[in-house]
Amino acid sequence: MNLLVTLRVALRALSRHKMRSVLTMLGIIIGVGSVITMVGVGQGAKAQVQDRMAVLGTNTLQINAGSGGMGGIRGGLGSIRTLVTADAEAILRQVPGVVRVTPGASGSVQIIYGNQNWQAPMQGVNAKYFLMRGWDFALGSSFTDQDVELGNTVVVIGSEVAQNLFGEENPIGKTVRIKNLPFRVVGVPVPRGQSGMGANQDDRIFMPYTTAQRKVLGTTWLSFIQAQAVSREATYLVQKQIEDVLRERHRIRPGAPDDFIVRNNVEVAQLADESSQVMTLMLAAVASVSLLVGGIGIMNIMLVSVTERTREIGIRMAIGATERDVQAQFLTEAMVLSLFGGLLGIILGLMASKVLAAVLEWPSRISLASIVVSVIFSAAIGIFFGLYPARKAARLDPIEALRYE
Residue 178 contacts by C-beta under 8 Å, 6 or more apart in sequence? Predict the structure, then answer.
């Protein structure tokens, strides 16, 4: 019996019990739909985490002042004020894998425009900061190296700060007040939302770090230093070299703890990727239980079908059908059920993903690979759970089958 005839007979047999066939496929439909939806949600969450981690910068390392204590009282991160501008310059000069560096001075300030005011975190950085983070501008541009060198009172404001102070008015060129000093607004970066650490990147104020130190904070030390490595792979070697340079500059004895902390943002991004991958696998594993239940349903119905059609099997074998023909017949019926269920499950999964994305505002990304795997898995379920009933049917004794009532 050729494949086309086998398929035609299988469809005719399944069509005799339409409702039973639909109910049998339901487990596969729900299983495949669940897997596609859950994998889509997991991939969407992973992409969202990657987007948020990207705001930390490409191939960047964050150097913060460490913690210390005096008289038994220990301070937190940043309580040791040992980072200075010369450290940033030494890192750029002495570490070959570093291509850009920005010193950083941070605090919180009140910014005033007309009768509006807003309090936001402030970061003093250099002109390379936005380039290091791959951050484009919606309006205006960054301040310049000359602004940093001269300590000019210019400021870049986040989109949320701009909205609260200026509304629909264009802020570029306008004068705002910080610490009773006039600052000229030169740029508004493209909105980025929350970072991977949960901080609102759009509710920030940026100015030259020299201006922040001399005119706003009144300090000579740095809150942080950011360094950009030549590549993602180079960050690990660069991290070690930065630690060596700073230990030498700060005259830290061998075996003594560092008075600074170097964080590799690549490690943070990799950890976030791994966490998202684990979540995706867990969601897919939970949804796969439905596929297992659907496969058991197919086996159950096929066993019932073998019992109901025992006499039919005996007649077919009596007129020349081989065990292989009978086995192929029932195996084809099981595969038809699973494949049709899989195709309908794919449609259900795509629709459910769209609904989740629209109603719950939950990111969802459906990959072609997940659809292909679902189809292959559906076929495999048909073969696996249809094999036993098919073998049972093929091994029936023709004489006993003909006698069956």
Answer: 109, 110, 111, 112, 122, 155, 205, 207, 216
